[in-house]
Amino acid sequence: MKNALMAGALGLLMPALSAAGEYNITVDRVMIDTGDFVKEGIGYNGASPGPVLRFKEGETVTINVTNNLDEPTSIHWHGLILPFEQDGVPGISFDGIKPGETFTYEFPIVQSGTYWFHSHSGFQEPNGAYGAIVIEPEGREPFRYDREYVVQLTDKHPHDGNRVMRNLKMMPDYYNRQQQTVGDFFADISKHGFVTTLQDRLAWGDMRMMKADVEDVQGFTGLINGKGPEQNWTGLFEPGERIRLRFINSSAMAYFDIRIPGLEMTVVQADGNNVQPVTVDEFRIGVAETYDVIVRPKTAEAYTIFAESMGRSGYARATLAPEEGMQGPVPELREAPLLTMADMGGMHGMADGDMATRDGAEDMDHGNMSQGSMEQASMNGSSGMAADAGTSMAGMDHSGMDHGAMIMAEGGASDPFYAEGSGLVPVAANGGKFLSYSDLRAQKPLYEEREPTREIELRLTGNMERYTWSIDGVKYEDAEPLKLQYGERVRFKFVNETMMTHPMHLHGMWSILDVGAGEWNPVKHTVSVQPGTTVYMETEVDAPGQWAFHCHLSYHAASGMFRKVVVEGGPDQGNTAGVEVANDGGDA
Amino acid sequence: MRTLTLSALALALTLPSLPVLGSDMPQDQSGRKDALSLWGVQFEELEYRYSDDDEELGVWNGDAFYGTDELKFRWLTKGEYAIEEEAYEKLENQLLLQTPVSSFFDAKAGVRFDTPEGPDRTYGVLGLTGLAPHWFEVDASLYVSDEGDTSAEFDAEYELLFTNHLILSAALDATVAFSEDREIGVGKGLVSTETGLRLSYDLVDRSFSPYLGVVHERKYGDTADFAEAEGGGTEDWFAVIGARVSF
């Protein structure tokens, strides 16, 4: 009798429990059909990408992850603030999920917005193990929309991740099919003259660097929500509706430049956090970043979502249309960018006499981010950027080159988050507004503004010819953990000394990107650092435990651009300092 | 070390539900903490040669490696098989350890075994290999044979991209002997050069690239005299057809 009552009560409770967020995910071998090729990969619940997980702010979610692979797996909840044991990084948060095992994640949802999840084991993520997370906020959002779509991008490669890694190590230019040719040499001669062209080639050859080295891994098919350009994922709308597009870049390596010809996009969220709305024609999304934009198509026509990779070696395409089957025009890929000497600005030995200091640098209030130039500004607190930039410009010891000795990028577009004279500065296809990091302002500061307690400089380092990537010249395998104290606010200074762009991702704690807006600096989880630049971010160290911190380019992380961050102290932890030091005998 | 790791893993397995305390914050024992060990196989040359005096040769020049950024084990293999004579004119294998000494160069050391038709030789090898400024791939080796003779070999290769798939590669290989080894027909001084021009097309990624080319081989000084004394030639032109292969 009593038992029956109990069962009844349980039965009543059950639906409530599952509404409070119980999810089951299986990790499976799947076939991925991009339209260009079919490749075996890894997916969730039988598909790649996996399901869109819809959480509610304030609930506690329970996620049962069953590993149906014959190798260990893991799921990392990218951008979610949670206890470190739930963060899903094998070797740092937990032991991983063995074949056949079910691991139950359980954590409270303390935020809202667009995020994603992916495997943190081996190359399972480039092989297809990723999905989207949408968290509904507790309160009202500061913008309105009538419908929403997740637009999740990836750069699906016909080669398995292990093979890509091996090929890159064997021949770093294995996948680079944009190298300069004999034809380019003669084209440059007719454009710039023989001497300039020769000097240009000699300068690059002397460094053993390629200016066409923008994308290491080419030959991929860009996918949107798992669909290749020909398969054309389509989102439906009624004219006049506001559509929220939740862009997520789940690529292994590719940055995408995204536009919807005919529509302006209002960016309302970056990395899950609301930003003050900014209307753009195009934006660049780094690997692992998310941007939410609102578009409002007024006419009943098909609009193409066109996402060109930063190096223009591939693209993804999807359609917004009033009816299934409609198509808009698909633009041509624009010309591939070339790096300039400015992008090499961070490399050692580059600051030699050949390079004239750029005179009369226009836009003094933004041309700061360059290596060297911000040294003096660095300790002046987060609001000092714009003010200091003017004086520090004089100290720039790189770029320049505009005295005719070298071939420079054309157009002269600039963005404070790119080296002055960089060949990578994006330009909107329609000549309009291209989003810059410097346009991002937090909608509402997440933390009270305060002075950082200390600054940690991290040099992003590597050797393209050996395909080794590291932080401060040290690969993960040889590195001591980076130690932070609970309660401090750390100012990170990223100095990119390589020729590649690195999307740096700190797990477990927010990355407050310094755009010079003080308390309105945007709050992100992934911060892109362009070649030859220095970027600052601040982190409130409010999450005890240990966390991963790495470049989110899969093959950079795997070859060493990775660190473990240990947060010492904290409410639940006690002080771990002594133990860690005893364990690895390292620096305190 | 291995057993330590294993027992740590076993411990972790048996105590999965214990709360993680600051005092037992685990160290990263995952594969990520290990140096990346990789392998690769490449044949720069895998070709059929036809000489201006109707000699036919099967020729290869390849290597396989296994190891980390810091230390690689490399097997180099080179051979020239005379098809009519059914004999190896050249058969050379090197077993080497290779480690970086600068941003662009590796040092290598090991043993070389020459086992062609005729007398064999074993050499100790010391060398440098890497990428010189302006994209010249260079390789220099110093050999000391079991007969006490020393020699040096220098290799350089340059690639000219007509397109990103159609590539002309120029290769030069020169050998110098510091003492004579009459038995294997090597005289003191510049011994021989081999110059090749190969026009290849990357058909399947960079793993299969068929090519056509010309190769010029020449012997010099005493080495040339020794060859002539034995009724051999001192200079050969070859038309070659083959493929660059890597996997």
UniProtKB/TrEMBL annotation, chain A:
<dbReference type="InterPro" id="IPR045087">
    <property type="entry name" value="Cu-oxidase_fam"/>
</dbReference>
<feature type="signal peptide">
    <location>
        <begin position="1"/>
        <end position="19"/>
    </location>
</feature>
<feature type="domain" description="Plastocyanin-like">
    <location>
        <begin position="221"/>
        <end position="317"/>
    </location>
</feature>
<dbReference type="Pfam" id="PF00394">
    <property type="entry name" value="Cu-oxidase"/>
</dbReference>
<protein>
    <submittedName>
        <fullName>Copper oxidase</fullName>
    </submittedName>
</protein>
<dbReference type="GO" id="GO:0042597">
    <property type="term" value="C:periplasmic space"/>
</dbReference>
<dbReference type="InterPro" id="IPR034279">
    <property type="entry name" value="CuRO_3_CopA"/>
</dbReference>
<dbReference type="Pfam" id="PF07731">
    <property type="entry name" value="Cu-oxidase_2"/>
</dbReference>
<keyword id="KW-0479">Metal-binding</keyword>
<dbReference type="GO" id="GO:0005507">
    <property type="term" value="F:copper ion binding"/>
</dbReference>
<keyword id="KW-0732">Signal</keyword>
<dbReference type="Pfam" id="PF07732">
    <property type="entry name" value="Cu-oxidase_3"/>
</dbReference>
<dbReference type="InterPro" id="IPR011707">
    <property type="entry name" value="Cu-oxidase-like_N"/>
</dbReference>
<keyword id="KW-0186">Copper</keyword>
<dbReference type="InterPro" id="IPR006376">
    <property type="entry name" value="Cu-R_CopA"/>
</dbReference>
<dbReference type="InterPro" id="IPR008972">
    <property type="entry name" value="Cupredoxin"/>
</dbReference>
<dbReference type="GO" id="GO:0016491">
    <property type="term" value="F:oxidoreductase activity"/>
</dbReference>
<keyword id="KW-0560">Oxidoreductase</keyword>
<feature type="domain" description="Plastocyanin-like">
    <location>
        <begin position="38"/>
        <end position="138"/>
    </location>
</feature>
<feature type="compositionally biased region" description="Polar residues">
    <location>
        <begin position="368"/>
        <end position="383"/>
    </location>
</feature>
<dbReference type="InterPro" id="IPR034282">
    <property type="entry name" value="CuRO_2_CopA"/>
</dbReference>
<dbReference type="InterPro" id="IPR001117">
    <property type="entry name" value="Cu-oxidase_2nd"/>
</dbReference>
UniProtKB/TrEMBL annotation, chain B:
<dbReference type="InterPro" id="IPR007939">
    <property type="entry name" value="Cu-R_B_prcur"/>
</dbReference>
<keyword id="KW-0732">Signal</keyword>
<dbReference type="GO" id="GO:0006878">
    <property type="term" value="P:intracellular copper ion homeostasis"/>
</dbReference>
<protein>
    <submittedName>
        <fullName>Copper resistance protein B</fullName>
    </submittedName>
</protein>
<feature type="signal peptide">
    <location>
        <begin position="1"/>
        <end position="22"/>
    </location>
</feature>
<dbReference type="Pfam" id="PF05275">
    <property type="entry name" value="CopB"/>
</dbReference>
<dbReference type="GO" id="GO:0009279">
    <property type="term" value="C:cell outer membrane"/>
</dbReference>
<dbReference type="GO" id="GO:0005507">
    <property type="term" value="F:copper ion binding"/>
</dbReference>
